[in-house]
Amino acid sequence: MKDVLRRLVAGELTVVEAEAELRRAQLVELGGRARLDVGRPARRGLPEVVLAEGKEPADVASLVTALAREQGQGLASRLGAGHRAALEAAVDGLETRWYGAQAVRVSQPGWAPEPQPGRVAVLTAGTSDLDAAREAVMLVEAAGLDCRLEADLGVAGLHRLLGPLAELEAWEADCYIVAAGMDGVLPGVVAGLVGAPVIGLPVPTGYGAGGRGEAALGTMLQSCSTGLTVVNIGNGVGAGAAAVLIAARVAAERRRAPQPARPE
Q1: Contacts by residues 49-56 (CB-CB < 8 Å, ≥ 24 positions apart)
Q2: Domain boundary residue among 74, 107, 140?
């Protein structure tokens, strides 16, 4: 939007041309099958993400590469083997970074999101929870915030949590995302130990009843730790988006707060 306004003021565009570009920046139609919201980063501070599940591989590749060329980066989640093959055939000079096997960020060479204040910590109870956690990491990094991932900290060995959690507290994380399957206890434990907002991310891992994430979701919703926020089962994208909004706002308020005077 700023670029269009600058060119309008400089006389490089007419009013009609500027209006057309602004409309195009808000909605880009690809083949009449999908509309990309390329104005979302400016409007909400969040990148658009293509959900690959249920879409044809060629359509996903077209959407993601269009996003990358329009706004510097394109994100996708829940990719299967067919999606990956189609995307790798379509990138044509664009750079790719995979977050596990199912999430990807495609970007123009050398492009990086504008750095934003805010720090997000992502924890997992087990390594089986990493795919969902990596979706969240992708969102946070694509929004320009700092992110740290610590894995395999579940309550079956509670001692594993304390050291990494102390380090993240010293790092002054503005928000935590905690991914857990099985009984889903870890987010409530973390929420009872830290002062920053905690987002519980239930993951569909486990055995038998509740093994599709229902048990983890129920535990998080019934947590004794007040203030724990919970997203839907496996929704790493949603957890990452919520963490970005929280951490960015916290960091912005911290910058505006008057700083104590330093002693002479």
Answers
A1: 49/75, 49/76, 49/77, 49/139, 49/237, 50/74, 50/75, 50/76, 50/77, 51/76, 51/77, 51/78, 51/237, 52/76, 52/77, 52/78, 52/79, 52/80, 52/83, 53/77, 53/78, 53/80, 55/83
A2: 107
- Per-residue pLDDT of 222-241, as tens digits, reads 999 998 999 999 999 999 99
Burial of 52 (0-12, 13-18, 19+ CB in 10 A): buried
Summarize pLDDT for 96-109 with one digit per residue, the tens: 999 998 999 999 99
E strand residue ranges, the chain: 28-30, 34-36, 49-51, 73-77, 95-99, 103-107, 119-124, 146-150, 175-180, 198-202, 229-230
CA trace torsion 99, 149, 177, 205 (10° rounding): 60
Q: Are residues 246 and 124 in the same domain?
A: yes
Shared domain for 157 and 220, answered yes or no, is yes
Q: How far apart are the first and last CA of the chain?
A: 46
pTM for the whole structure: 0.82
How many domains does the structure of the chain reveal?
2
